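Q: Please design a sequence for this.
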């Protein structure tokens, strides 16, 4: 199990190669990569992501432990970036390995829902018009509530 919070870009292919390399204990590996998307009305110059080092890793690590126990994961990887990111850049990645695909898919979805709504990150969208902090969305909260 690994949690990394970093400013540097990551190589999705290399991360997946390492995560899957030599694995004979899993029947399924699921991965998801989130990208910074442009805004529909006003072009996004950058998304600035802030966090509290140490606290963020511990919080995400706790959710990985919860997912591991709930879905009998063999392994999990969460990478989340911070700092200024441009549209199209990878912002995060989740990978899960489990004996069966349902566990791998559900655990990955659970972790993605958690990262979207509960992980201690603060996001600011910067456009030519200024900067605004991103508020939580009802649909993200609804997505997380299905895991109760």
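A: Design:
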């Amino acid at each position: 199990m690994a949690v990394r919070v970093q400013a540097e870009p990551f190589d999705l292919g290399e991360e997946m190669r390492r995560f899957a390399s030599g694995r004979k204990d899993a029947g399924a590996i699921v991965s998801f990569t989130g990208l910074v998307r442009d805004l529909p009305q006003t072009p996004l110059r950058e998304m600035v992501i802030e966090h509290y080092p140490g606290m963020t890793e511990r919080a995400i690590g706790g959710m990985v432990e919860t997912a591991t126990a709930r879905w009998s994961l063999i392994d999990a990887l969460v990478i989340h970036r911070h700092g200024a990111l441009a549209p199209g850049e990878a912002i995060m990645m989740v990978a899960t390995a489990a004996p069966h695909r349902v566990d791998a898919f559900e655990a990955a979805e659970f972790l993605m829902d958690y990262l979207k709504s509960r992980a201690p990150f603060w996001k600011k969208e910067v456009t030519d018009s200024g900067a605004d902090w991103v508020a939580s969305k009802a649909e993200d909260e609804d997505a997380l509530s299905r895991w109760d």
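Q: Thanks. Anything notable?
A: The chain is about 35% helix and 35% strand. The chain has a mean pLDDT of 93.
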